[in-house]
Design brief:
It contains no helices and 16 strands. It has strands at 3-11, 14-21, 28-33, 41-45, 48-55, 60-63, 71-72, 85-88, 94-98, 105-108, 113-116, 124-130, 133-141, 146-149, 157-160, 166-175. With 176 residues, the protein is an all-beta fold. It has one domain. The termini are close together. A hairpin with a 7-residue loop joins strand 14 (146-149) and strand 15. The strands form 4 sheets. A 4-stranded antiparallel beta sheet has the order 3-2-1-16, with no helix packed on it. A 4-stranded antiparallel beta sheet has the order 4-5-6-7, with no helix packed on it. Strands 8-9-10-11 form a 4-stranded antiparallel beta sheet, with no helix packed on it. It comes from Herpetosiphon geysericola.
Length: 176
């Protein structure tokens, strides 16, 4: 059974598409679509990522083929807000949030909020958990970086940098 992950990154200059074939953590750039649009929100189903919806400030587009072709939605549905805090299931329960100083991420393992020391990454813009991998989290910055944690936010690694400012993330897996 083959698997791949598809990551949609909503930026100020379109939606960047990355693929992780075989889930081997070697993310490949698939392309940039809607490059003339500032994408504010992105949604895809965790187990059906070939269909996704993205929003700019005025319009929404949908793809049914993993981002190769996009069509406008009319009327435009209301966009979701980017996540600023995540509640993590499991034992022990935990929370991750963008701090009031948006240059910091904070984690709470049930006792107290602790600032995560990730260096100078810019302002955090959104957080996303992975529905089919409860320990995996993604975070993005206005400096065009995507960060990933596979241990419920205890440690983080930079997945991608030097993108346009990022406003939204969505991820799903394709199983065939």
């Amino acid at each position: 059974m083959a698997q791949a992950q598809l990551l949609y990154i909503g930026t100020d200059h379109g939606v960047v598409l990355l693929s992780n074939p075989g889930r081997i953590d070697r993310w490949i750039s698939v392309g940039i679509e809607l490059a003339d649009q500032a994408i504010q929100a992105v949604v895809c189903q965790a187990d059906a990522p070939m269909q996704a919806t993205v929003w700019s400030s005025e319009q929404a587009w949908q793809t049914n083929d993993g981002g190769q072709a996009w069509h406008m939605l009319e009327p435009t549905p209301a966009p979701p807000s980017p996540s600023q805090q995540l509640e993590l299931a499991g034992q022990p329960p935990a929370s991750i949030r963008i701090a009031s100083d948006s240059n910091q991420l904070e984690r709470n393992d049930g006792t107290a909020w602790q600032s995560l020391q990730l260096g100078q990454v810019g302002q955090w813009s959104c957080l996303m958990n992975v529905a089919y991998q409860i320990d995996s989290l993604y975070a993005a910055t206005n400096a065009g970086e995507v960060w990933v944690s596979s241990d419920r936010g205890r440690t983080w690694a930079c997945l991608r940098q030097q993108l346009a400012p990022i406003n939204a993330l969505a991820i799903g897996r394709v199983i065939s």
